[in-house]
Amino acid sequence: MKLVPRVAEMIKKSGYTRDYIVMKIEEYEGKGKGVNLKTISNWCTGRSKPNVERLFILAKICKCKTDDFYEWVDEEIDSSDTIE
């Protein structure tokens, strides 16, 4: 199984821009403690993941559940990897 990010999809579905998300996270965490656009981009591509606190903040901003941001999918098994 593989954890696939749906962060970009959920941000888009919320109708908010990434700039707005950055601003709102800073409001929750305090000035200078928020994230930047690169961080949001990394969450969207799966390069990095938000910590639990930020995931809850993101869910509150986007008006969804924390588990909406990631999805477990079955990985395809390569036929050359079969056990004989």
Automatic annotation (TrEMBL):
One of its GO terms (molecular function) is DNA binding. Pfam families: HTH_3. Residues 34-69 form the HTH cro/C1-type domain. This is HTH cro/C1-type domain-containing protein. The lineage of its organism: Bacteria, Bacillati, Bacillota, Bacilli, Bacillales.
